[in-house]
Fold this sequence. Notes:
This protein is mostly beta strands. It has two domains: 2-117, no CATH class; 132-166, no CATH class. Helix content is 8%, strand content 36%. The chain contains two helices and eight strands, in the order E-E-E-E-E-E-E-E-H-H. The protein has helices spanning 108-117, 157-160; strands spanning 2-4, 15-22, 33-34, 38-47, 50-64, 71-86, 98-100, 104-106. Strands 2, 3, 4, 5, 6 and 7 form a six-stranded mixed β-sheet that branches. A two-stranded antiparallel sheet has the order 1-8. A hairpin with a 2-residue loop joins strand 4 (38-47) and strand 5 (50-64). The radius of gyration is 25 Å and the shape is elongated. The relative contact order is 0.17.
Amino acid sequence: MELDISKIRSKSGSEKSIDFIQPVEDIAEKKIHFLQPVHFKGKIRNLDGTLYLDGEADILIERVCDRCLCAYKQSLTIRIEENFCPENKIIDDIDFLKTYNGNQLVLDRSIQDCVLLNTNMNSICKEDCKGICPTCGKDLNEGPCSCEKDTIDPRMEILKNLVSEE
């Protein structure tokens, strides 16, 4: 996702309203797939060469549930506030982690970071997801499986002999 900053990057105090829709790269390591282009609406300001981006992004992603391994959709509206300083400027302040060079501002990494910060680390399709059977692999949300339920951990089986069955 690229933003044209040619009109504001050279003039301090300038501001530009932004409203556009563009695709963003998937976040492969977290198995997050963007189902549609991201809609971003906000503004960008230039204050002494530092660009301040402020707005909201409407996002539709697909994730894989950690319990049942099924894909599910998640709709998000994420607030994005980022500071970008010129690549050639000496950075004394830790707030400036992102830089820009030229007339295009690449927003993919900022949006991906905000998605990661605004989604749960554990990807669960629904609150009451039952997961999969550890024996046969059946999705327990679709119904029970025919596996034996009273399996005993072999390490604890000796303790069963200590309990008298009356």
